[in-house]
Write a structure and sequence with these properties.
Elements lengths: L12 H28 L11 H12 L5 H25 L6 H20 L11 H4 L10
Helix pairs in contact: 1-2, 1-3, 2-3, 2-4, 3-4
Pfam families: DUF6518 (PF20128)
Keywords: Membrane, Transmembrane, Transmembrane helix
InterPro entries: DUF6518
């Protein structure tokens, strides 16, 4: 029995960017939903739309979709920053003003906390239904 010591082929730059797309798109959507949710949710649930904890959990879940640890670290940052961008965009669309200072604070928090949410600790097993999302984009079409 022989074993192969060849490394897997390197992912193309486009595939690396595509691996981060769910974090950005999901982050934008969560940010928009947060802004609108603050007006829609009943008072008993309003704290969910005004909590850093909710965004932290969302960033962690979005980062779990990344195929590699480095991508998960970057996805954690991008998800949180995209949530802030989506929140600001939706707030402007709702007729509210956006504070540059508040945005800078939360984007700084994204840069500081995002890597820990995205890549720290062991990577949990992914349920079979989500496993195709976690593979590298080049592998997604292949059946095992």
């Amino acid at each position: 029995m022989t074993t192969s010591t060849t490394a897997p082929p390197a992912a193309s730059p486009l595939a690396s960017v595509a691996a981060l797309a769910p974090a950005v798109v999901g982050g934008l959507a969560i940010g928009v939903l947060t802004s609108f949710g603050q007006g829609w949710l009943p008072s008993a649930l309003n704290s969910l739309a005004n909590s850093a904890g909710s965004w932290s959990v969302a960033a962690l879940l979005l980062a779990l979709l990344a195929p590699r640890r480095w991508a998960a670290v970057v996805a954690g940052v991008l998800a949180l920053a995209a949530m802030m961008a989506g929140y600001d965009l939706a707030s402007v669309l709702r007729g509210f003003s956006v504070s540059a200072g508040v945005t800078l604070f939360w984007v700084t928090a994204a840069v500081v906390v995002g890597p820990f949410l995205g890549g720290d600790g062991p990577r949990p097993a992914v349920p079979d239904g989500l496993r195709p999302l976690r593979r590298r984009p080049a592998e997604r079409g292949a059946r095992r």
